[in-house]
Design brief:
Aspartate Aminotransferase, domain 2; 2 domains; seven-stranded mixed beta sheet; three-stranded antiparallel beta sheet; 13 helices; binds pyridoxal-5'-phosphate; transferase
């Protein structure tokens, strides 16, 4: 049998999984490994959500639900969005619950884009964007967001890449992998261009809660942007519920209607009992988030202070999400060789920046979803390992 369609031939299947496999093998051989390769918070999910799942299972919440999610969950999400971010969406018609932000983005692309259309996305970006575009038969065009520009998205760079086929801009702030946050001023310039060129925006805001200092701004809240923005969020990071697979998209009713149509043909609905658990997280999980984010800030501050003192590593302080993305070019190694060296000598696993698009080149991503003690140990070991070079 052929292994895939022609579109997927350029898909870098397995890049990250090779790193994970290598790290696991070293660990099996007894090496101390500090896993900083994956964006998976190390906290347990909220207890109230877990208890609610047990109850849901006992009361037979095991069947298909509405494609857009159970009503109590849609309501709880919309209330939380209003409470914490001032986003106002109607729980009947302007939200669809999905199996994570990843599914939401894939479904949106499949719904809104024709084959051959183009999406522009600031690079470096979450690695799945490019692969999802390939699956949907659309072209993802990378626009640089660079450390040398203090991670600001230059609107002229976007403009240069717009063609008659460009339909969409895919933004992610707070950002994975670079930890940058697009501020209101920057978003306003982007919004003007979006309106002028009649584009749609997917605003991936699944790190909205992980912001250290300034306030999170959703581009959807800027003037005349609500109707051209699909906001994607998730419980994965905010509630440490990565394996529950609950995300959602907020947007205008006419778009959500078609998104639901497409979604129906993929997973039909999200896991019923997980949805009942998530209701509790949204209704009663604010302090859970606040406590977790406080701890992530402590870890991120330590990581930044410590790594930025290492000769040769260039860093800009991450403002959001939970990743450090140092520039490693002065070491004269490829990103993959640098990661292998760190793994073998320091036992610390990072991800080559090239996994996150062309403009991730020269960088390495380190996720600080480990305990504070592990972060301290990792920093000491990285320092010692790089000191030997
Ligand atoms: N978007 C970004 C920017 C991410 O970093 C991730 C996961 O790491 C996702 C989407 C996918 O999240 P989910 O687990 O909700 O599918």
């Amino acid at each position: 049998m052929r292994s895939s369609n022609k579109r997927l031939e350029s898909m870098p299947f397995g890049g990250l999984y090779e790193i994970f496999a290598k790290a696991n093998k070293l660990e099996e051989q007894g090496k101390r490994i500090i896993h900083m390769e994956i964006g998976r918070p190390d906290f347990d999910s909220p207890i109230i959500a877990k208890e609610a799942v047990k109850k849901a299972l006992d009361s037979q919440q095991v069947h298909y639900t509405d494609v857009n999610g159970i009503e109590p969950l849609r309501k709880a999400i919309c209330e939380k969005e209003d409470r914490r971010f001032g986003l106002k969406y109607d729980y009947n018609s302007e939200i669809s619950v999905m199996a994570g932000a990843a599914e939401a983005i894939g479904v949106i692309m499949a719904t809104m884009m024709d084959f051959g259309d183009e999406i522009i996305s600031p690079s470096p970006f979450f690695s799945a964007y490019k692969e999802q575009a390939l699956i949907a038969g659309v072209k993802l065009v990378e626009v640089p967001v660079l450390m040398s520009d203090n991670w600001e998205l230059n609107v002229k760079e976007i403009e240069k890449r717009i063609t008659p086929k460009t339909k969409m801009l895919l933004l992610n702030s707070p950002n994975n992998p670079a930890g940058y946050v697009l501020n209101k001023e920057n978003l306003e310039k982007i919004a003007s261009l979006v309106k002028e060129r009649d584009l749609i925006v997917i605003s991936d805001e699944c790190y909205d809660e992980f912001i250290y200092g300034e306030k999170h701004v959703s581009i959807s809240t800027l003037e005349d942007m609500r109707d051209r923005t699909l906001v994607v969020k998730s419980t994965s990071k905010s509630y440490s519920m990565t394996g529950w697979r609950i995300g959602y998209v907020l947007g205008p009713a006419n778009a959500i209607k078609y998104i639901n149509k497409v979604h129906q043909n993929f997973s039909t609905c999200c896991t019923a009992f997980a949805q009942w658990g998530a209701v509790e997280a949204f209704n009663h999980g604010d302090s859970f988030i606040d406590d977790m984010v406080k701890e992530f800030k402590r870890r991120g501050d330590y990581l930044y202070e410590s790594l930025s003192k290492i000769d040769g590593l260039k860093m800009v302080k991450p403002k959001g999400a939970f990743y450090a993305f140092p520039d490693i070019t002065s070491f004269g190694m490829t990103e993959a060789d640098f990661c292998s060296y760190l793994m073998e000598i320091a036992g610390v696993v990072g991800v080559p920046g090239t996994a996150f698009g062309d403009y991730g080149k020269g960088h390495v991503r380190l996720a600080y979803c480990r305990s504070y003690e592990d972060i301290v140990e990792a920093c000491d070991k990285i320092k010692a390992a790089l000191g030997k070079l």
